[in-house]
């Protein structure tokens, strides 16, 4: 206690942030991301680690740059993750847990934003930005702003691109773009049957002037889309119930002035009707929790039997 000293800037370079823990399907191990600051390159570095609670954790990725968002295959034999190791935008990689080098699965012109395994482990759905007018092309200067939402901190200026959904077949490496709309389509989650994907999109006319986003259902084979909610607040983080009959999601339930309101858990039955609130008596806000660069943990999870929903909340924070 006698060696106490004040906090210094150099201490930041010794801090390591642990985030995004992902439990294996058999419940015996978990993968997670460790992020640190690289003083020499003035950038972040992240690696994926593995722990089982009985032995020392071991580092799975050793490549430079960012290695993050580990996701187990349904059979627990592989881990897919995102990486900037190729010195370009983050791409999707696949690592066999039995040993061996990680394999690069995508080579998209823009970074892969998120991805999720299909229930049978044969397909991965992912999202990336694509220009609707000229897919794959880099926008040219000058920057033209025609939307009220034109820039995000950490992302920079928006261009004519939108977030689109892709399907990657792991058997033949075929990558198929499933959406091609002038709207962002994000926060994807597979149906247990594997024939559809629920996602979040704001496609209404006043989307630049409010915080409303709706749930949509995408048919994987025919690429059809169906709107599931109608201006039901700022919907986010949808996830199917294990039996595929319901979708849980997060929303304040308000279409404006949402900043000071609690995020609540809502459940939507696929057979129809309005969403019902599952956390109406909880005087806390559902939150995604702390995030490392490039990843944001999901705020809600169904239990395997579908009897309950696990949630992250802010309590006196």
Strand ordering within the main sheet: 1-2-3-4
Low-confidence stretches: none
Oligomer: single chain
Q: How large, in whole angstroms, is the Cα Rg? A: 20 Å
Beta-strand portion reads: 35-45%
Let me know the number of strands: 26
Shape field: globular
User: Which series of helices and strands comes N to C?
Assistant: EEEEEEEEEEEEEEEEEEEEEEEEEE
Outline the biggest β-sheet: 4 strands, antiparallel
Distance between the termini: 28 Å
Task: Report the average pLDDT across residues.
Answer: 89
Number of helices: 0
The percentage helix is under 10%
Helix-and-strand structural type: mainly beta
Give a written overview of the molecule.
The chain has 317 residues and is mainly β. It has a domain at 14-105. It is built from no helices and 26 strands. It has strands at residues 17-23, 30-38, 43-51, 58-59, 67-72, 78-83, 91-96, 103-104, 112-117, 123-131, 151-152, 156-157, 161-169, 175-177, 186-190, 196-201, 214-219, 225-227, 236-240, 246-251, 264-269, 276-277, 285-286, 300-302, 309-311, 313-314. A hairpin with a 6-residue loop joins strand 7 and strand 8. The protein is globular.
